[in-house]
Amino acid sequence: MIGMRPIGLQQGILRLAIGLCLLSAKSWAVPSFARQTGMTCAACHTVFPELTPFGREFKLNGYVLDNIKQITGIDIDSHQTLALNSIPPISMMVQISYTHTSTALPDSALPSALAKDGDVLFPQQASFFYAGKIANELGAFIQLTYDGVADHFGIDNTDIRYAHHLSFGGMDGNSHSMILGVTLNNNPTVQDVWNSTPAWGFPFAGSSVAPGPIAGTQIDGALAQSVAGLGVYVWVDDHWYAEVSGYSAAVVGGAHPLDGTQSHVAHGLAPYWRLTYEQRWDRNSLSVGTYGINIKTHPGNGTALQGPTDQYKDVAGDIQYQFIGEDHLVTVLATYIHEKQTLNASLFDQFAANATNTLRTMKLSGEYSYQRRIGGSLGYFSTTGSNDTILYAIAPVVGSANGSPDSSGYIAELNYLPWLNTKLQLQYVGYDKFNGLRTNYDGSGRNASNNNTLFGLVWVNF
């Protein structure tokens, strides 16, 4: 590359915003960003948390676009030493939920009794956010969450990033643009700007108390808030995205320094990678990408955090299509993850029956929204993998009678937004197979369809 020179970051984002806002109607998001930018939330979101093309640019540029008074400082050499929002970018989210399973769950204390069927959580979750600019080219999305089931506060999804905008002339004689960024985060894929990857993928909300399948890949949430990662990314010509990050153990809670009372603790540095191509035309955008992680862990859970390790190699592909019209919005999301497990430590500690296993997960969803007020989604999910009678052991409700991780089903969802910061959601999850079988999957007489779940949610941001 030749002739590289920095350009005004905010001017570049603002020019993009003017163009993309012409394609947007009203919506809502984390209110901190709306207060900071002075833009309606539709500039960044279709229906929260799904991002528009401009929302992806805003995140890639470090959350720093602002349209409010700044507190600034300049040193004797006229270098800016401070650029601070005069109003802190703080907001709050509350979720209130109702969960009903097709068949009541067994009572946890009385073997012959059933638990109450129909569970209200008030709240299911409550979150505080610092979301916005910290300084020029430096911004953050930091979430602190109260868990209504565990009844405690804890750090949630966090992404702190630095972004520098460059332009350069290439050998072809054309001008090219590039964002060079650094991300510090606590959940692989939380830094991603597409909704086809796990951290911000469909379903965007679900029950905290309904039974879920026994198996899931590492990159699909198993590492959330238990690792910390530092990565470097580039975004070239609004088309190509590439990132390389490294993650290490950062377990929250429990014993510190980390010891055998913890479980599933990352060993050494785990490389994460991401490559995506996006094409935009008219009111459409299409992205095709791949991502993955290679991580070693100690099982812990009463065993020493030394000696043999388990190794997980996750390789994934994803596709996202968006149409954003004046009244009609359509999104299609798909991701497929293949995981190879080498379980030397778990085999030695008798936590697994096999030295090697595989796990494959697939998610596919289609979403429609009319004027961002009423809409719906339909999704399909599937997990398949190696049988392991110890790793997927027999147990009431949560276990597998045949040692299989196989689960599949669908998610149907209706959404209504009476106000732009309030979402009413009705969701139904239906299971065709659960932990390996359709009938008597747990060895205690429970069927897959007994876990079908009706879930209602009130989701408010302010």
Q: If you had to describe this structure to a student in words, what would you say it looks like?
A:
The protein is mostly beta strands. The chain has a single domain, classed as Porin (Beta Barrel). It is 8% helix and 50% strand. It is built from 5 helices and 20 strands. It has helices at 9-21, 31-37, 53-60, 218-222, 344-348, and strands at 2-6, 70-74, 80-85, 90-101, 119-135, 138-147, 152-169, 175-185, 227-236, 240-249, 263-267, 270-281, 284-300, 310-324, 328-343, 356-370, 374-385, 407-419, 422-433, 453-461. Strand 9 and strand 10 form a beta hairpin. Helix 1 (9-21) runs antiparallel to helix 3 (53-60).
CATH level 3 topology = Porin
DSSP, total strands: 20
What is the CATH top level name? Mainly Beta
- In spatial order, strands of the major sheet run 4-5-6-7-8-9-10-12-13-14-15-16-17-18-19-20
**Total helical elements:** 5
Helix-residue proportion:
under 10%
Strand content is over 45%
**CATH architecture descriptor text:** Beta Barrel
Q: Calculate the terminal CA-CA distance, rounded to whole Å.
A: 45 Å
Radius of gyration: 23 Å
Run of helices and strands: EHHHEEEEEEEHEEEEEEEHEEEEE
Low-pLDDT ranges = 1-28
Computed structural class: mainly beta
Mean pLDDT: 89
Shape: globular
| Largest sheet, strands/sense/barrel | 16 strands, antiparallel, barrel
